[in-house]
Amino acid sequence: MSTELSQNSAINRVRTIADYQFGRGAGVALFPDECTFKLSTTKRIRYVMLDKVRIATVRAHDGRFTLSIEGAERLWQFLPAPVYRVSVAEEVAEFIMKGKNAMAKHVIAADPDIMAGDEVLVVTGDDQLIGTGNALLSGDEMMAFNYGGAVQVRSGRSI
């Protein structure tokens, strides 16, 4: 029995994880058939690449994805607003595009289904993607709190 993953097996695996994490259909939207994979030393999928650009990383401790800004853009195009989105005030968009964290007092809208620890898309009020990161609060808490961090931004994107 081979320990190497076939291309079909690997693409099916990452699509299944994405469907679980982001909802049905997200796997196909995020990962086209042309994706390639970088494996860890234990032969597990670590990075998902498209045209030699990393679009997602599999977190070793829970098997979920963290997205690069390229992966976040693919997900943003697929998911209808407000799913997995945190909208922030225009005056802080510039800072978030530079990779600074989104604070709760600047959140103007958030998907109520977001839970702390989820991978989220940070958008402006008019739904322009400006960053991606890890939710520090639930969607409801982001709206209720006036202080503290809401999203730990991993990477920003200029419009």
TrEMBL record:
Pfam families in the record: PUA, TGT_C2
Organism per entry: Methanogenium marinum
Residue spans crossing the bilayer: none
Highest taxon above the source species: Archaea
SMART domains: PUA
Xref: SUPFAM superfamilies: Pre-PUA domain, PUA domain-like
InterPro entries (UniProt xref): PUA (IPR002478), PUA-like_sf (IPR015947), PUA_sf (IPR036974), TGT_C2 (IPR029402), TGT_C2_sf (IPR038250), Uncharacterised_CHP00451 (IPR004521)
Location of the PUA domain: 84-158
Protein name: Pseudouridine synthase
GO molecular function per UniProt: RNA binding
